[in-house]
């Protein structure tokens, strides 16, 4: 089939909403804005930017994304409650194209146990919520939560009600990741056949991965008549996650011979999006993950390598370049000048203000003095680190650690806190422990360390280290990242980046109602 509107699949990305619901995946406003920019560059059709009623932070984030993004529809989730819908409507008001996504559970179990509502009350709530949402926007999506465990006759009635009230997209989620592909396709077929006004809406899949079937089920949903897929970058999401966008999109692209649908996704942006989401959430991508895993395009065995050299198609069904995987290209050396550095930044997609550019250039030169070869990945790590810490209240200025196999480690750390310089020398069981103890002493906080992770940006012993630190305090969890050619400095920067986020959240929560 040709690439026409009739077989175009809308990609609805919910990394910032369902993805953020993964335990420990919370993101700051700045991080969400960066992800939204990346999703727009990917050309996703809809960005579900959050759940407006959940918190002031969520509301503000949806509002700012609505102001900023011009080429994707911006959506807020809302329960079937008038207050929820009004808040969602307010949040997406600045959007060039705004959508309200309202949902209510329709399975007997959820209605009885969770909602404690009769089926008649649920039908009434669907009518009221969709009608209310249409007062704010023309683009209203309605979801039947736990659709795959809903009685079909009731599902028909619920969908018909939602469409009659003005819903233009109908989402039938496999909320608990229970369906098989055959069942999921059949559900769409039956609903589309038995709901009299089904032709007035686009149908959507939303699959969780509890049985590892989320991507297969999403594609099966298309067989059943759906034309929108809800998914997340790297498949992050509640429990086992959601359908992974990169897998859905590349399956459609690579197997267009048998899957007659297409998307608008700019697939060369996939790898960059995957890396950003992984860095921000601290959820590493497993090496053998389809499309974006470190080994997805690696060929280890001699027979495979030989085949690849003769003709890449022997063992590669898609090119690494098609998903934005580039070979580590030697970029620059310490003699590269300001102009070449600026060109490289724009090639890598960065637009920096003057001050940020000067600081990145200074760090690039310093890196060149210490590291022989500088690759694109080095520059990305350095600039991301600089951009992430630019406006932070607390910064690491200098760090010296002394360590030996026979005793404790010592760390001498100097920081600025709101512009004031502070310094201390502290001990620890190892250099990272000593550095973290010194920082805790200087900031006067004792957050609980939930995760400390290091990975090398490129190969070789002079590679930069990229660290992720997950901290928890008073029930809030944040991730911090840091990159540096010195691993302990990268760790300390990651720790301080997380502490800065804890401070921001604390300040936002503090003022009570007036
Ligand atoms: O999994 C689910 O059912 C959801 C709905 C809110 C769409 O995330
Ligand atoms: Zn979900």
Describe this structure in words.
With 514 residues, this protein is of the alpha/beta class. The chain has 4 domains: 5-281, Aldolase class I (TIM Barrel, Alpha-Beta Barrel); 296-325, no CATH class; 338-388; 391-508, Alpha-isopropylmalate synthase LeuA, regulatory domain (Double Stranded RNA Binding Domain), CATH 3.30.160.270. It is 40% helix and 21% strand. The longest helix is centred in the last third of the chain and has 23 residues, at 487-509. 46% of the residues are buried. Residues 18, 103, 143, 145, 171, 173, 175, 206, 208 line the site of 3-methyl-2-oxobutanoic acid.
Strand content: 15-25%
Mean pLDDT: 91
Total number of strands: 16
In the sheet with the most strands, the strands line up as 1-2-3-4-5-6-7-8
> Could you describe the largest sheet, including whether it forms a barrel?
8 strands, parallel, barrel
Small-molecule binders here are: 3-methyl-2-oxobutanoic acid, zinc ion
Helix content: 40-55%
Examine the coordinates and then state which fold CATH places here, giving the name of the CATH topology of the largest domain.
Answer: TIM Barrel
Assigned CATH class of the largest domain: Alpha Beta
Q: Which structural class do the helices and strands define?
A: alpha/beta
Which secondary structure elements does this structure contain, and how are they paired or packed?
Layout: E1 10-13, H1 29-42, E2 46-51, H2 56-68, E3 73-79, H3 82-91, E4 98-105, H4 108-115, H5 119-134, E5 140-145, H6 152-165, E6 169-174, H7 181-194, E7 202-207, H8 214-223, E8 228-231, H9 245-254, H10 270-281, H11 302-310, E9 330-332, H12 338-347, H13 354-370, E10 374-375, H14 376-389, E11 394-402, E12 409-417, E13 420-428, H15 431-443, E14 448-456, E15 465-473, E16 476-484, H16 487-509
Parallel strand pairs: 1-2, 1-8, 2-3, 3-4, 4-5, 5-6, 6-7, 7-8
Antiparallel strand pairs: 9-10, 11-12, 12-13, 14-15, 15-16
